[in-house]
Amino acid sequence: MSDETEIPRVVLPEITSSWWKRLFSKDSTPEYIQHFNVQLRKAISSAASYMRIAPFGKPVWTNYTVEDAIDNGYRASHIVYACVKKLADAASSVPFIVQERDKKGEWRNVTNHPLEQLLMRPNPFQTWQDLIERIVQHLNLAGNALLYKNVVGGRTVELWVINPDTLKPIPDESNFIAGYQFYKGSRKDDVLEPDKIIHLQFADPQNPFWGMSPLEAAQKIVDTEVEAVSWWKVSLQNRAVKDGLLSFKNPMGVDQYTAVREKVAEQLQGSANARGPIIIGEEVDYKPFSMSPVELDFTNSRKMTREDIMAVFGVPGILLNFTDGTTYANAREARKIFYIDTIMPLLEGIRAGLNRSLVSGFGDINKLRISIDLTAIDIFMDILADRAEAAERYFRMGVPLNMISNLMNLYIPPTPTGNFSFAPANMIAYGRDEEESASRALSYKSEKQPGLDNNNAI
């Protein structure tokens, strides 16, 4: 957009139920806003040439598939496999719980709730841990995870993970998504209603209907890693890196040349014959070749490639047993960073999607929710210990304990005394009204707090 064009900041009126028409309807809209809408629509139309969005009423199909991701990434690269497996194992080990809001507004864990029973047994063939593993795998390999809700009597009784290659959203002008087109082989099946699908995705800035995976962004670097491993394998088997030149003084026939090649291959191929001398006929001259800088730097190049892949997935190398110059303390810190920066945001995204699409069938979304029990993770105790140090400073500043717990997610149950502020007895307020402040401090010190003995104050 040029600097010469100044667009007024306006809020368009909500005229119809269509999200698209709300942007571009001319009814009851001032003329200058209509002009702005026309320009905006032209801009969106011109952007459609590079935005990966299907026309309304057509399924969103992309060239990147789960099958490609598995064949060319998950199965082809041990680094990709290790990263995705580490993510899936870590995320699926965290329990999901159901909570209800009590009369005081506090969230309490509930048991034997129908929603909790669904989480414990999502379908007859999978556990909740299996479900989360597949969700995390699909998100990291395909950028999308799709769950089908088997609804009976208005309530979800089963959850099934669906391969993203077989289900695509259909953009709609009025309802954003009209449904999900299901494909089995080359045959089109019925369109599934959007409320039957829980769609989780890693957002693609160019496509609000379909997500983008970390592996898709790392395709080139993964291909480089796979090719490097293949090159190394072949070089061990066939000595693909030419070490030198064998030259014979006398001319050779085809049969002699073939015999020499077979003899050299017999003596050099295979790991058992690595770096051994060559024994051949007489009148032979051998000229060794020096290795190129790229070949000499093969190990460092592979290390850089490996680190790039791990960075895309958010997995520290030390957690995959790449322990270059690391210590136990470094490993603990790396694990904490992994859970804080990668696993917790991942789980929060899954939790939010489930609350949006699943909870309403079981009760009031303002009083019922799916949550995550982070206290079940051993490393979370270290995270809480770090937060506790900061919490202690807030407490000594007079911030109530209950407020600190809510602010810093300390998972400390509310207590009756947690709403009181405490301060060191030798602290005296001062300022413009020194005498009044001091008098209030002394009166506070002399008063007995309800349910708390004065001797317990810090």
Structural features, described:
It is a single chain. The longest helix has 30 residues, at 328-357. The protein has helices spanning 21-24, 31-47, 66-74, 78-92, 114-120, 128-142, 214-217, 219-238, 254-268, 293-296, 298-313, 328-357, 378-396, 401-408, 434-446; strands at residues 96-101, 107-109, 144-152, 155-162, 167-172, 176-184, 187-192, 197-201, 244-248, 284-288, 368-372. The strands form four sheets. A three-stranded antiparallel sheet has the order 2-1-11. It has a three-stranded antiparallel sheet with strand order 4-3-8. The protein has 458 residues and is an alpha+beta fold. Among the domains are: 1-50, no CATH class; 66-219, no CATH class; 376-456, no CATH class. β5 and β6 (176-184) form a beta hairpin. It starts with 20 loop residues before the first helix and ends in a 12-residue tail after the last helix.
Question: Could you provide a short overview of the structure?
Answer:
With 458 residues, the protein is α+β, with helices and mostly antiparallel strands.
User: What shape does the CA trace take?
Assistant: extended
Helix content: 40-55%
How far apart lie the N and C ends?
Answer: 60 Å
How confident is the prediction overall: mean pLDDT? 75
- Number of DSSP helical runs: 15
Q: Can you summarize the main beta sheet?
A: 3 strands, antiparallel
Keywords:
43% helix, 11 strands, three-stranded antiparallel beta sheet, disordered N terminus, single chain, extended, disordered C terminus, alpha+beta, 15 helices
